[in-house]
Amino acid sequence: MQEILEILKEAGSEIVPFRWEDDAFYLLDQRRLPWEETWLLCKTWEDTFSGIKEMVVRGAPAIGITAAFGMVLGAREVKKRGEDAFSELLSIGQRLKEARPTAVNLRWAVERVLDAIKGVPGDRLYEKALKEALSIWKEDCKANILMGRFGGKLLPEKGGVLTHCNAGALATGGYGTALGVIRGGIRLGKGLRVFSDETRPWLQGSRLTCWELSKDGIPVTLNVDSASGLLMRRGLIKAAVVGADRIARNGDVANKIGTYNVAVLCKENGIPFYVAAPSSTFDKDAASGDDIPIEERDEREVLYFSEKNMAPNGVSAYNPVFDITPSKLITSIITEKGVLEPPYERDISSKIFGTSD
Ligand code: MRU
Prior knowledge:
The chain is of the alpha/beta class. The strands form four sheets. The protein has a seven-stranded mixed sheet, with helices on both faces. The chain has a three-stranded antiparallel sheet with strand order 1-2-3, covered by helices on one side. 50% of the residues are buried. The site of 5-S-methyl-1-O-phosphono-5-thio-D-ribulose (MRU) has 17 residues, from helix 3 and strand 9.
């Protein structure tokens, strides 16, 4: 883990959402930010499962890496019980993949660990799984730093950059995707100010994006989600950059609910709309956004604010937590393999999947 922290330090942000220390995995409890920094110990793979489900950790790449460490903890337990190790780990992987449905990085990371341990003798499973989980984490950090280099150049020399949700260090192995691009722009000396949508109902924008940017000394202003149109009309926003939970083969993007609204407003106002995501967020099995499952969460997340019901008793709420932004609204998709341009089908197939079809 020390090597990963060194890479992040060198890049300019030391914030991480998890730690692996003395053979133990800890999650920074993102439900308690910005009020307190509490680290939760995950003793079993079930602890990582509930950490993902209950949003202790969130953000597609961070969820994937957590699941990879869930597999590591699973390998340790299985070894202790002396069971038919690989088939047991296959079912643990299956359970972990079900923790949250939209972020494809979850499936990707579990399958990477399973591929790495296939055929490995029982007494070496844990060690092999750990090596793979640490590689996934390190690669994610390096990918984000590269996206920062590519994407930073696309941002304006100065002015406001809007972001939605938290696609920062907290949502990844470190450094961030969308916020990585902003960090990259600032490293180039650009005079940027981040406008952060507060992102109802979980407030990832106000609680998490504002927390991590303030910690790293990056100028940030918070706005309610519905203010972004006015900010654009007033000329305060020069570009928007968001992350992604899953990207289909045609470039349609699933991301936090409200991302689609931002993209439409950018189009209307002639503002570039960028998506930043590593190749682990692309789904070969999804031809378009119609093939991406959208998570729906408990209506209480919308109805209640600080345990107080904000609607009359008996009123119900609908709580889909992601939406699909059609590729035609996206100016470019920034990845660690380069910047993809429309028509995305071609660039995604050649640069991400390495095929020519
Ligand atoms: O529900 P969340 O907080 O997991 O949603 C997170 C997002 O929508 C992020 O923008 C996305 O996962 C990209 S994170 C680099």
